[in-house]
């Protein structure tokens, strides 16, 4: 969950120094390449007859009529239009740009560009691991997981039952970075309890983190982040986690009101208010998730809707995905469609929750009236094609969806198998293979 101590980079080896020297020399060579090219052309100006060639090209350009430029403009516009139509058809079928896919998957590895999504806070054990991670970075996307389970009440229970840890070190590192971003600020050292919690989020051992949380509560009884850590990691049931989150909510609300009144006093007070806002929103969202897991789904929906109205600009925790989860459990499909219409925008980052929920609704809309004989005779309707494309889009976005999520489409198995027989594209085989 938390980052470990800072790693010290080893001293470079002789081979590494030689490699760095060669890289530096190569950089200087690239800088001098234009000058060398000009000198080479100047030296060969007589054998290549550059002056005569330039005069010939200039004369050819001067003889061109306006009709040539009109024809050239029309031809380039036609080619651009054809490319645009091809891009639109490709995007409509696969949900992504063909030119973007070619540039990312084929051109970028040739020029050796790094992916912008690499986090500067990540660290690797060796140079070879770093190179391997950089090569595989373009093949996976890392998105925030707003549906994450509770560490103590759910992940640890899985460990107790199966004897296997469902969380990798990479998962722990990502969550530690999120917690330090959400729950810490520059003024933590001014309050002993916050200073203790700032160290607690960096601890690797769960026992040390829980111990630090109790130490923070000894320093200050209303430390909201200490209650959050205990609710996430020490609580063994959802009911116990909800009780601790209620305590965190009371402490977080009082801290939020105090910092709200003082946020305009200085930059430090503004940062503290931002941190208190994150703590309050996170606590309310987790309370809504507790209510849903305990069967109080309508209460969970109300908390999430109120939270989205109160903090409309705070979208980093993706509360709308928790809302989709609860609305699907209520079978409120019209409300689900309304949420998707607002957040399933082509210009915004997608998620597996949004993609698979959209596929579920589109498949549900056509599955009841689907007839294989009619489909064979007249072909697929627009709505049926939209359902197929939505499933394609979801699988292409995240083909590693667990089986329990894919089984949401189980009522529409018959329709999907028939569509696969009509349009053999392989998506159903890929979907059922997961």
UniProtKB/TrEMBL annotation:
CDD domains: ST7 (cd11557). Keywords: Membrane, Transmembrane, Transmembrane helix. The chain crosses the membrane at residues 21-42, 68-91. This is Suppressor of tumorigenicity 7 -like isoform X1. GO terms for cellular component: membrane. It is found in: Membrane. InterPro entries: ST7. It holds the Pfam family ST7. It comes from the Eukaryota. It is a multi-pass membrane protein. Belongs to the ST7 family.
């Amino acid at each position: 969950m938390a980052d470990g101590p800072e790693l010290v980079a080893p001293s470079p080896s002789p081979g590494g120094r030689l490699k760095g020297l060669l890289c530096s020399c190569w950089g200087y060579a690239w800088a001098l390449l234009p000058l060398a090219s000009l000198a080479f052309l100047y030296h060969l100006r007589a054998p290549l007859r550059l002056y005569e060639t330039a005069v010939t090209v200039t004369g050819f350009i001067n003889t061109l009529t306006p009709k040539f430029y009109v024809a050239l403009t029309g031809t380039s516009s036609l080619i651009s239009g054809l490319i645009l139509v091809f891009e639109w058809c490709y995007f409509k079928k696969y949900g992504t740009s063909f030119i973007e896919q070619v540039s990312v998957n084929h051109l970028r590895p040739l020029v050796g560009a790094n992916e912008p999504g690499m986090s500067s806070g990540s660290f690797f054990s060796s140079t070879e691991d770093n190179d391997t991670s950089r090569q595989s970075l373009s093949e996976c996307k890392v998105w925030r997981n707003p549906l994450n389970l509770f560490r103590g009440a759910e992940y640890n229970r899985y460990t107790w039952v199966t004897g296997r840890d469902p969380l990798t070190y990479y998962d722990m590192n990502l969550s530690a970075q999120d917690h330090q971003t959400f729950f810490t600020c520059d003024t933590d050292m001014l309050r002993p309890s916050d200073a203790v919690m700032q160290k607690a989020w960096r601890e690797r051992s769960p026992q040390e983190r829980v111990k630090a949380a109790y130490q923070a509560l000894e320093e200050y009884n209303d430390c909201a982040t200490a209650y959050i850590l205990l609710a996430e990691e020490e609580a063994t049931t959802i009911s116990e986690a909800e009780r601790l989150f209620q305590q965190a909510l009371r402490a977080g609300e009082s801290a939020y009101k105090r910092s709200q009144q003082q946020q305009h006093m200085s930059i430090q007070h503004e940062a503290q208010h931002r941190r208190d806002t994150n703590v309050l929103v996170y606590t309310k969202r987790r309370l809504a998730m507790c209510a849903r897991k305990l069967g109080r789904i309508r209460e969970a929906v109300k908390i999430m809707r109120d939270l989205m109205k109160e903090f409309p600009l705070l979208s980093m925790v993706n509360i709308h995905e928790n809302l989709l989860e609860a609305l699907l459990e209520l079978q409120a499909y019209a409300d689900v469609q309304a949420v998707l219409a607002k957040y399933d925008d082509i210009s915004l980052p997608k998620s597996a929750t949004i993609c698979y929920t959209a596929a579920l609704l589109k498949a549900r809309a056509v599955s009841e009236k689907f007839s294989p004989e009619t489909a064979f005779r007249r072909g697929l309707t627009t709505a049926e094609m939209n359902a197929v494309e939505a499933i394609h889009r979801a699988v292409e976005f995240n083909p590693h969806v667990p089986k329990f999520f894919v089984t949401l489409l189980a009522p529409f198995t018959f329709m999907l198998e028939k569509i696969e027989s009509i349009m053999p594209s392989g998506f159903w085989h890929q979907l059922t293979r997961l």
